[in-house]
Give the backbone structure.
Amino acid sequence: MVLHYQQIPDISEEEVLEHLRSRKRFLDGISVTGGEPTLHSDLPLFLEKVKKEGFLVKIDTNGTHPEMLQQLYQKGLLDYLAMDVKAPLERYEAVVGAQVDTRKIEESVRLVKAAQVEYEFRTTVVPGLLDGDDIEKIGRWLQGAKHWVLQQFEPHQSIDPTYCNKKPYSTEQMNEFLRLAEKYVEKCEVRGIQENRLR
């Protein structure tokens, strides 16, 4: 049975913290993902409580709220950050299919690159949306970054039904994108359903 998100019951903050406490012997940290977690103004307060319990914190973000990222950095609440970079700046809105303030995306990229915590940028390489030219453009934008992950597109994970039958790029094509990306960042890798066959 598949539940609609409106059917999923709310879980209180205290329930989450109690769940974490009960598993301290088995867990080192948590990953806060989305939706977009930086939308929530009470995120710092929650993470302060998580950190007080002794857990590491990773955030997954799309970079649309750099002011929240800045706040989390300043408070020392992040141990790892993963930011999705969807497309070259000039094609951002076309690729995501929504209005985007790319100035905020740019600011988040600057914050992440300058932060004193471990991080990765991630780009899902969707056939028909991104190609080698786009990887080059993103690479020039991210130049000097420590870590960039090219993610293999997985049709079964798409929420857009028009992409469910789209064929992912081949291993050879992903390897070529990797070679393009490696010119710009310290560490680049491919992640996804075919990653164990790369190289």
The longest helix spans residues 102-114.
